[in-house]
Amino acid sequence: MxxxxxxxxxxxxxxxxxxxxxDAVNALIxxxxxxxxxxxxxxVTAHLIEAGGKRVRPLLTxxxxxxxxxxxxxxxxxxxxxxxxxxxxLLHDDVVDESRQRRGRPTANLLWDNKSSVLVGDYLFARSFxxxxxxxxxxxxxxxxxxxATIAEGEVLQLTAAQDLxxxxxxxxxxVRGKTAALFSAATEVGAVIAGGDAAQVRALFDYGDxxxxxxxxxxxxxxYSGTTETIxxxxxxxxxxxxxxxxxxxxxxAADQAERAFWQRTxxxxxxxxxxxxxxxxxLARHNAIGAARADALDWAGRAKSALSALxxxxxxxxxxxxxxxxxxxxx
Length: 333
Hints:
This protein is mostly helical. It is 74% helix and 1% strand.
């Protein structure tokens, strides 16, 4: 299930339309990730930031501001802030998850060590707060500080919920809103705020980012079971091996018979995994159409994201943001 090249074009077109802004954002990132006293900081940061990511989150900040007619430069500071927060969370996540691959490359914790990843992540969080204060907007700082706290809260909730078969779809959604959607919605919301959008416009862009982020994470969780290593940039089946209860498994557990439930208890709750278990997990997911049901949820959230845009000014940026929602789910459509 690779990315449909025709659907991928809206993201490229949005990046092309906002290329001058994104060039400025990339220059800010390179400048602000430097350290006079600790050369390992730019080494570790560059390894991840320059690994070919699409810069979706900072692009959302730039797009939201420009959509509402913003002509200043503070949106560039905020876009860099968002990327630093995102990179910091990735560094920390790879340590927590003991991951070995990210964006098709070895993780920083594997190339260096866990201590370097955690401390450089801390540094990037600190840098992000320095950047956001330069806008002089207390509301922007409130939004991004709240998002940082929500992200951490979501990660901690996942620690307790991920291996508990009692975890419901509502709890899963709470985790996703924390670990993923919070930064998407903050990215679009601060773009609207810095542009001076009215309350309805700010809310619409928050809702768009929230729904887009949820769709994005559901798709990511689906691809862990149905994608390829080349497509997802990490090892297929990592969520199963890491005993994460993601949406497809939650749906399968809800429909499980006694033998299937015993299988999930052994592999997810107890961590007793054996050769062939991933194939058996895939067979159970297929039996209950858990992947298809999760795909339907992702499409629904993408639809909500597109609907939120109706309250915003029509034009090329709005059209591309709508197409971006399609792009997010195209990987599993």
